[in-house]
Amino acid sequence: MAESQLPETVRVAVDAPQHSGLTAPLDYASEQALAPGSLVRVPLGRRELLGVVWPGEAAAPDVALRPVAAVFDALPPLGQDWCRLLEFAAGYYQRSVGELSSAVLPPQLRELSPDQLAARLRKLERKAAKSAAPTEPARPVLNGEQAEAVARIEAQRASAVPKPLLLFGVTGSGKTEVYLRAAEAALAAGRQVLVLVPEINLTPQLEARFTERFAALLPEPLAIVSLHSALTPAQRLQNWLAAHLGRARLVLGTRLAVFASLPDLGLIVVDEEHDPSYKQQDGARYSARDLAVWRAHDLKVPVVLGSATPSLESWQHAESGRYERLTMKLRAAGGDLPRVRLFDMKSLAATPGVTTALTAPLLGALRERLDRGEQSLVFLNRRGYAPVLHCGECQWKSDCPHCSAWRVFHKRDRTLRCHHCGFTERVPSACPNCGNHDIAPIGRGTERLEEQLAEALPGARVLRIDADSTRRKGELEAQLKAVHDGDVDILVGTQMITKGHDFQRIRFVAAVNPDGALFSSDFRAPERLFALLMQAGGRAGRGASGEHPAEMWVQTWHRDHALYQALARHDYVRFATDQLAERRSASLPPFSHLALLRAEARTAEAAQAFLAAAAELVQDAEVLVYPPVPHAVARVADVERMQMLVEAGQRARLQARLRAWMPALIALKKEHKAVLRWAVDVDPLAI
C-alpha cells in the first residue's frame, strides 16, 4: 500500500463497560482524517456504538486496528470547548469520557445512521418561518436594585476574566427580569444563552416568559428551545441539533442541558442554584451548577447563580471574594415579605383526637382567607394518603418486602406503594399477619390532607399538586393554570409547588409537620429545610399589597429553634453565618471535601467486605476513610446498599487519591463477585 493511502489513526471516546477497565479513548483506523469532535460509529466487541473522535495524538499502532464503521459527516464536529468540558467532568467525577459522552448526547443519535441524521438535518433546515412578525412586548421598569444587578453582570461580561455572580434576591425580588435583561444584552451581541432550572415543571413556565420577551428579537423557528427529559427523543434531538448548529440562540433546560453543544455561548444562568436537583443521583453523579461555573470560567463568560437561599458553598465563595455577590432585598411588585408566625404546637391542649396537622387555629386562619376571597397554600412534604397502614392488634405495619422502607397508603386507587422500588399491591381487607379487619392509616400525606381540608372547609375549592396527581402529560400545566386563573381556593402540595412559581393571588402559606428534618443525621438537612420553608413562604404576597398582610404559618414543636427564629426574621444571612460556623468547627463542606464509595449486593456482608477491602487500599495520612455504614434506606428491590465516606482537607488531594484508587477498585470488583454494582459519588449531597 502506498504511504499516502495508509489509514489514519484516531482516538474515539466510546462507552465501554466499567468492569472492562477501558476508561481512555480507544484507537481506530480511519480512511480519512477526522476532526476532533466528529461523531462516528465504531465496533466494540460484537456491537457497533456511537463514539466521538477525541482530541490528542493517537499512539502509533503496534497491532492492526479495527476501522471506523461510519462517519456522521453531515454534522459539524463538536467544539473543542465541549470536549474540554467532558474531559473535566469525567476526570472530576471519576467516569470515562466515553461513558459520559454517551450519557449526555441525545439518545436518538445512537440509533441513527449517518444518512438518517443527514435527513434530519435537511428537515431542520426546511422548518417554516413564523408567519406573523411579533410586536416588541412592554418591558417593566427596573427598580434600583435590579438595574444595579444588570449593570454589574454587564461589567463582568466586559471583563477579560469574569467572576461568577451570586444573585442573592429575596423571593419575588424580580430575579427573572434580571436574567431577561442580561440575556437580552448577550443575544444582542450575537451570543447564545443557556438558562438552567432545577425542575422540569418550571421549564414550560420560564420558556413561555422568555418566548414572550424575545419573540421579536428571535423570530426564527427553533431560536428558543428547551432540553429536558420530558421531551420525546425526536424533540430532544431536534432541539440539541438546533443548539449545536447555532440556530437556537437561547436554550432552557434542566441539569442535562449544561452539556448542550453551544458554539457561541456568551452567558449562563443557573436559577435556584441551591436546589439539590442539579446533582445527578445515578451514573456520572455530576453537579450541573458546579459544571456551569467551570464552563463559564473556561469560556471566560459570565455565569449568574440566582437564589433567595443560596447554597452554603456558593455563599462561602461570595464571602471569600471568589464570587461577586449581587443583593436584592426588595420585592419587585412592591409587596412585603410574608409575616412569619411560628405556631407552638405545645400550646394546644393534649386532647385525644386533635389532629396535629390541621389544628383549629390553622383552620380558622384558612377560613378567614377563604372569606376574603384569597388563595392559600398548605405545604406538606409527603405525598400519598398516609405513610403506613397499621394493625392495632399485632402491630403489623405496611412494610415493603423488598426494601427497608414502608409502603405508602394511596387511598384514591386503594394501593400500598413503595416509593423506592415501585412495588404496589391492593390494600388488604384484613391484617395479613393476624386477620384483624380493623387496620388504619398512621400519619398523613398530601392526599389525606386534601380530603381533610375539603371536609373541614365545605365549599372550598381544594386542589392537590404532587408527583401522584400530575403523572399524566399536561396535568401539571392544567392544574397550575387553574391556580393562576383563581379557580382554586386552597392549594395542597409537596416541595413541587414551593419552587419558582409566581402565584400572584396566594396570600397565606402554611407549613405543617416540618420538624422531622431538624434532627436528621444528614448535616445538610437544616440547609435544605430552611431553603424549602423560605421558598414556600415566598409564594405568598407576590402580587400587589392587599388590605391584609401576607402570612406564613409554621406549625412546630420546636418554636425556639435557631432555624425557625432566623426564618421568622427572613434572615438568611444569620442562618448562613451560624451554619458555616458549625461546618467549620466540624470540618464539613465547604471546609473539607467528600466522596462516597457506594456498593450494592444481595447481602450486606458482601457489600461491606468490598468496602472494607477498598479502605485498605487507601494509604494516605491526609485522606480520612470512615468505616462502611448502611445507606439511609439500606435495602431497595432486594438489594442491600452500603456506603463509605472519604474526606480530605484539600480538593486536589482528594482528587489525586480517587484517581489512583479507581483502577484498584475495578480490579477489586473482580475478586468480590457478589457485589452487583459500585460507584464513587464526588461531592455527595446526601450522606
From TrEMBL:
<keyword id="KW-0235">DNA replication</keyword>
<keyword id="KW-0067">ATP-binding</keyword>
<dbReference type="Pfam" id="PF00270">
    <property type="entry name" value="DEAD"/>
</dbReference>
<dbReference type="Pfam" id="PF18319">
    <property type="entry name" value="Zn_ribbon_PriA"/>
</dbReference>
<keyword id="KW-0238">DNA-binding</keyword>
<dbReference type="GO" id="GO:0016787">
    <property type="term" value="F:hydrolase activity"/>
</dbReference>
<dbReference type="InterPro" id="IPR027417">
    <property type="entry name" value="P-loop_NTPase"/>
</dbReference>
<keyword id="KW-0547">Nucleotide-binding</keyword>
<dbReference type="InterPro" id="IPR042115">
    <property type="entry name" value="PriA_3primeBD_sf"/>
</dbReference>
<dbReference type="Pfam" id="PF17764">
    <property type="entry name" value="PriA_3primeBD"/>
</dbReference>
<dbReference type="InterPro" id="IPR001650">
    <property type="entry name" value="Helicase_C-like"/>
</dbReference>
<dbReference type="InterPro" id="IPR005259">
    <property type="entry name" value="PriA"/>
</dbReference>
<feature type="binding site">
    <location>
        <position position="418"/>
    </location>
    <ligand>
        <name>Zn(2+) 2</name>
    </ligand>
</feature>
<dbReference type="InterPro" id="IPR040498">
    <property type="entry name" value="PriA_CRR"/>
</dbReference>
<protein>
    <recommendedName>
        <fullName>Replication restart protein PriA</fullName>
        <ecNumber>5.6.2.4</ecNumber>
    </recommendedName>
</protein>
<dbReference type="InterPro" id="IPR041222">
    <property type="entry name" value="PriA_3primeBD"/>
</dbReference>
<feature type="binding site">
    <location>
        <position position="391"/>
    </location>
    <ligand>
        <name>Zn(2+) 1</name>
    </ligand>
</feature>
<keyword id="KW-0413">Isomerase</keyword>
<keyword id="KW-0862">Zinc</keyword>
<keyword id="KW-0378">Hydrolase</keyword>
<dbReference type="Pfam" id="PF00271">
    <property type="entry name" value="Helicase_C"/>
</dbReference>
<feature type="binding site">
    <location>
        <position position="434"/>
    </location>
    <ligand>
        <name>Zn(2+) 1</name>
    </ligand>
</feature>
<comment type="subunit">
    <text>Component of the replication restart primosome.</text>
</comment>
<dbReference type="InterPro" id="IPR011545">
    <property type="entry name" value="DEAD/DEAH_box_helicase_dom"/>
</dbReference>
<comment type="similarity">
    <text>Belongs to the helicase family. PriA subfamily.</text>
</comment>
<keyword id="KW-0479">Metal-binding</keyword>
<feature type="binding site">
    <location>
        <position position="394"/>
    </location>
    <ligand>
        <name>Zn(2+) 1</name>
    </ligand>
</feature>
<feature type="binding site">
    <location>
        <position position="431"/>
    </location>
    <ligand>
        <name>Zn(2+) 1</name>
    </ligand>
</feature>
<comment type="function">
    <text>Initiates the restart of stalled replication forks, which reloads the replicative helicase on sites other than the origin of replication. Recognizes and binds to abandoned replication forks and remodels them to uncover a helicase loading site. Promotes assembly of the primosome at these replication forks.</text>
</comment>
<keyword id="KW-0347">Helicase</keyword>
<dbReference type="Pfam" id="PF18074">
    <property type="entry name" value="PriA_C"/>
</dbReference>
<dbReference type="InterPro" id="IPR041236">
    <property type="entry name" value="PriA_C"/>
</dbReference>
<dbReference type="InterPro" id="IPR014001">
    <property type="entry name" value="Helicase_ATP-bd"/>
</dbReference>
<keyword id="KW-0639">Primosome</keyword>
<feature type="binding site">
    <location>
        <position position="421"/>
    </location>
    <ligand>
        <name>Zn(2+) 2</name>
    </ligand>
</feature>
<feature type="domain" description="Helicase ATP-binding">
    <location>
        <begin position="156"/>
        <end position="328"/>
    </location>
</feature>
<feature type="binding site">
    <location>
        <position position="400"/>
    </location>
    <ligand>
        <name>Zn(2+) 2</name>
    </ligand>
</feature>
<feature type="binding site">
    <location>
        <position position="403"/>
    </location>
    <ligand>
        <name>Zn(2+) 2</name>
    </ligand>
</feature>
